[in-house]
Design goal:
The protein is built from 1 helix and 9 strands. It is mostly beta strands. The chain has one domain: Immunoglobulin-like, CATH 2.60.40.770. The N terminus is likely disordered.
């Protein structure tokens, strides 16, 4: 028996929904863009449990209020109101799903990975993710609570 296209579509939709629920996030200063949705996969509940040695998919849908030739991501672990830089494999937004140059009034899906290294301590903290334009202004900035665990 061959499953119907509708049954396959519903099954795929259910699987995708289970992995990437839109997160509750705090906007921490998006000036040149507006965030429509933030997804971290897998992160079924908040705070997100980030397991050491695992990489997480980040998908941010945002609308740009400006034009920019490029964009750059900066990621921090925030502890006691101190931002500790968190290296990511690809900081260039134009290599992370965004078609550059960025156009005013267009929506974009920013895609990246958040690797959690085995040597990170097991702690609760806030992940702060910024994407800046050519003028070092925030296209978006969001924060979510996470717990790094073994």
């Amino acid at each position: 028996m061959v499953p119907s296209p509708l049954a396959l579509l519903l099954a795929l939709g259910a699987a995708a929904t289970a992995l990437a629920e839109p997160l509750r996030f705090v906007d921490c200063g998006s000036v040149d863009g507006s965030i429509q949705e933030v997804n971290v996969s897998p992160c079924p509940t908040q705070p997100c449990l980030l397991h050491k040695g695992t990489s997480y998919s980040i998908n941010v849908t945002f609308a740009s209020k400006i034009e920019s030739q490029g964009s750059k991501a900066r990621v921090y672990g925030e502890m006691l109101h101190v931002d500790i830089p968190f290296p990511i494999p690809e900081p260039d937004g134009c290599k992370s799903g965004i078609q550059c140059p960025i156009q005013k009034g267009h929506s974009y899906s920013y895609l990246n990975k958040l690797p959690v290294k085995s040597e990170y301590p097991s702690i609760k903290l806030i992940v702060k993710w910024e994407l800046v334009d050519d003028q070092d202004q925030m296209l978006f900035c969001w924060k979510i609570p996470v717990q790094i665990t073994s």
